[in-house]
Amino acid sequence: MRENRLRTLWKSGGAAINGWLAIPNSFSAETMAHQGWDSLTIDLQHGVVDYQAMVPMLQAISTTDTVPVVRVPWLEPSALMKTLDAGAYAVICPMISTREEAQKLVAYTHYAPRGTRSFGPIRALLYGGADYASHANDAIVTFAMIETAQALDNLDAIMSVEGLDAVYIGPSDLSLALGCRPVFDDVDPKAQEAIDHILERAKAHGLVAGIHNGTAEGAMARIAKGFQFVTVSSDARLMAAGSQAVLSKMRAAPAKAGSSSY
Length: 262
Hints:
Layout: H1 5-11, E1 16-21, H2 26-33, E2 39-43, H3 51-61, E3 67-71, H4 77-85, E4 90-93, H5 99-108, H6 124-128, H7 132-139, E5 141-146, H8 149-153, H9 155-159, E6 166-169, H10 171-177, H11 189-205, E7 208-213, H12 216-225, E8 229-232, H13 235-252
Parallel strand pairs: 1-2, 1-8, 2-3, 3-4, 4-5, 5-6, 6-7, 7-8
């Protein structure tokens, strides 16, 4: 089976730099993949990407060594199983707040006897290899998103579920749940305290901790704290920021004679 480079990177103590795909297009996904991200996450929860757009995006990522990750819309078995059948090598599931929900997540993403995932790895066989079924349980990475006040109350119960590999913090939803501003990097003190606590408990349970970031500087600071999976912005945000930077520079420059007004 094809190596899951996330697991290899984490085993060596490294941190994965993850990109985020909100644009439902295979060419933009391919372009992002060729920039050298360790992994790219296709977001099915928020935004405009659906399953039919996701599949060619996974195919585009497969032109590189970048690990394909998908955030599913919700804790729902068919969405998780079809995402894995399409060739995702990691799944991020939002709003996991109880031990029971974490147990269901693990069950839906693992074949028997470790879980209840139905067998039908249609494209996963093409991406992962002919022996996919024999190794998928150990290769696929399962993330539970920790982003609710209830999840904070149940942290140790969630993190002790056998088969869960990692947790992923959504700073904005977590902040909202705690009555704070919904931001990525410069979070309010109460939210920062919760983030630090989640990271500490993840380390205690031997789980990888991941988190969403708005900037490279924010992501690097969190790697220094011990996060091993850091998302930086998104394709849509990066495109907008790049466009704004070019336009701001051009509009600040003096216009030359004969040129169009800008």
